Amino acid sequence: MARCGPETTELVVSGGYIRNPERQDARTFQGLFIGIDRYASDPIGCLSCAERDATALHSLFADTFGDGGELLTSDQATRAAILGELETLKSCSEDDFVVITFSGHGSELHQLVTSSQGREASRSYIMNSRCHEASA
Fold first, then answer.
1. What is the CATH number of the domain that holds 39?
2. Which of 43, 90, 97, 112 shows its CA 20 to 30 Å from the CA of 29?
3. Is residue 35 in some structural domain?
4. H-run or E-run covering 65
5. HSE, side-chain direction, 13 A CA sphere, residue 106
6. Phi, psi at 111, each rounded to 5°
7. Which helix (H) or strand (E) holds 50?
């Protein structure tokens, strides 16, 4: 517990960050961390650090802000799974703290390439605007 300010407000460290227990409307952390090293389509080259990057960011935010982040790596990071998680993020409060990260290949049109690329052809791409819609 820490004391600060002239009024001596009590603050509580909870989930790695400081909260004022008198405020009921505290922001919550919501996140989606995606890392894809391996793709279903052979012509799409494998990466070596995308999963590691997503896992590290997920851990960093979880350690700092507490639970609330989802991690999708390689085989889990299908178009359907990513869109499902983005749909879930739409229910966040406007006061929530939302983070979306993507480590993997993108297209020349600035689309995210999902791990299922190759099995679902061009329908595996996700436009960046879909991510913005989820966090808006």
1. 3.40.50.1460
2. 112
3. yes
4. helix 50-65
5. 9
6. -100, 150
7. helix 50-65
Identify whether the C-beta of residue 49 lies closer than 8 Å to the C-beta of residue 57: no
Q: Is residue 5 part of a domain?
A: no
Output the six-digit token pair for 22: 């008198």
Q: Model confidence over 61-105: pLDDT tens digits? A: 998 888 889 999 989 998 899 999 999 998 888 888 899 999 988
**Structural domain count, the chain:** 1
Q: What is the pTM of this model?
A: 0.69
**Alpha-carbon separation of residue 100 from 27, 39, 80, 85 (angstroms):** 16, 20, 16, 10
- Asked if residues 25 and 95 have their Cβ atoms less than 8 Å apart, the reply is yes
Do residues 96 and 28 lie in contact, with contact meaning Cβ atoms separated by under 8 Å? yes
Quick one: three-class SS letters along 14-46?
Answer: ECCEEECCCCCCCCCEEEEEEECCCCCCCCCCC
